[in-house]
Amino acid sequence: MQARPIRPAPPESAPTPIRRSWGEASGNGGGTNPPRDAAGELAVKVPILEAEIKGLRQLLAEVQANRETLRREIDALRRDRDHWQNLAKSAEAEKAEPRAWFCGRALPRK
Questions:
Q1: I need a labelling partner for 81 at 20 to 30 A (CA). Which of 24, 34, 63, 107 fits?
Q2: If you average pLDDT over residues 57-67, what whole number do you get?
Q3: 7 found inside a domain
Q4: Pairwise CA distance, residues 91 & 29, whole Å
């Protein structure tokens, strides 16, 4: 005995979903929100959001200042590196030049 495959119900017989407004979904007990309440809620949130934006702008300014300080320090370190590399190259060039070594005898006076 084989089990019969289960067929989905035709769309006409499916129950229609219950549509909710945004206010109902937020948990206000199913009552409708008058537009004035939504505006009042937004009016309360605006100063909070403005304060957060101000804080974020201050953080951004600090980050930019720190970035500029780090850039200057990196530039100074690169200049120091280049200076020492040039000194090392000049020292190597001096080593490569032939030098006149004397065996310790005094040169005759002229």
A1: 63
A2: 96
A3: no
A4: 85
Upper half-sphere CA count for residue 68 (Cβ side, 13 Å): 5
DSSP per-residue letters across 5-29? PPPPPPGGGSPPPPP--HHHHTTST
The number of distinct structural domains making up the chain is 1
CA 53/CA 60 separation, integer angstroms? 10
Q: Which residues contact 23 (CB under 8 A, 6 or more apart)?
A: 31, 32, 33, 38
Are the C-beta atoms of residues 27 and 37 closer than 8 Å to each other?
A: no
Does 20 have pLDDT greater than 60?
no
**The tokens 């490569």 sit on which residue?**
96
The per-residue pLDDT for range 37-52, each reduced to its tens digit, is 888 888 899 999 999 9
Q: Tell me whether residue 45 is in a domain.
A: yes
Helices (H), the chain: 22-25, 35-96
Domain that holds residue 51: 35-91
